């Protein structure tokens, strides 16, 4: 009667890689290193925005409207002293410092990407586990997911954000909804594959309860794919937020975000391209870094890709 632990033990052709070997592969993967370094830099910029920013990003200065990068302005104080201030990235149509707005905008964009990735994975994981394991619920759940995926993500996001009051929470919810079906389909496919494995069937025959079966045997198989999927969701969230803000249905204009900065500068783009150029560079670098990191994680964590 002591054979139960043997029945529950996974049967694998190759030993599972240790944490040290995975870490070694991550540190030797060029994509992971490049993407990770860029993301660390962007994260530090977001965290240190109060120290890196030169002025209040919402401060309006009518005298310094639409100034090009490098514009210097001398400000005289009441005591007769004067100081020269340099706008490193120029100013927008309201005289706000583009540099400070770009630095503070990193906080909004990165916060949205992290929140959307975590929430989408958490919700999609639960729904995907239920759909893949409970056969009677598989059909109805997947038809709902197929219906959501049939609608273009940006249109679905615009429809969702229109139901709520404009703000950060509404934008996050609007971006989460189109991402959930993708996570559900990924988790469901993993569950359908894993549940046919001999060690899972042996655990079921041994009377293992469903929660324990999920946590011990099925859930670990979803970790690596979900980590990779989370990076791509984060990159997509940054782009969708910028699109929503560019269209005027995202973050309120008074809150600096990369999408807002570009939206406000699009009318004078030909004359003052710096209003779109600098936030666009930060946006492009961040999205590219996240995608590169995701590719590197996939190559490292996926056994098939790692074998190549």
Q: How do the strands and helices of this protein lay out in sequence?
A:
Elements: H1 4-8, H2 19-27, H3 30-47, H4 49-52, E1 71-76, E2 82-87, H5 98-133, H6 135-150, H7 153-161, H8 168-194, H9 198-205, H10 210-247, H11 258-265, H12 274-301, H13 303-307
Antiparallel strand pairs: 1-2
Strands side by side in the biggest sheet: 1-2
Helix fraction, binned, reads: 55-70%
Total number of beta strands? 2
- The SSE string, one letter per element, is HHHHEEHHHHHHHHH
Summing up helix and strand content along with how strands pair, one would put the structural category as mainly alpha
Beta-strand residue fraction: under 5%
Give the terminus-to-terminus CA distance: 43 Å
Give the biggest beta sheet.
Answer: 2 strands, antiparallel
Count of DSSP-assigned helices? 13
Q: Overview of this structure, please?
A:
By secondary structure, the protein is mainly alpha-helical. Helix content is 69%, strand content 4%. The chain contains 13 helices and two strands. A two-stranded antiparallel sheet has the order 1-2. A hairpin with a 5-residue loop joins strand 1 and strand 2. Helix 5 (98-133) packs antiparallel against helix 6 (135-150), helix 5 runs antiparallel to helix 10 (210-247) and helix 6 packs across helix 8 (168-194). The chain is elongated and about 85 Å long. The two termini are 43 Å apart. The relative contact order is 0.15. Residues 1-15 have low confidence and may be disordered.
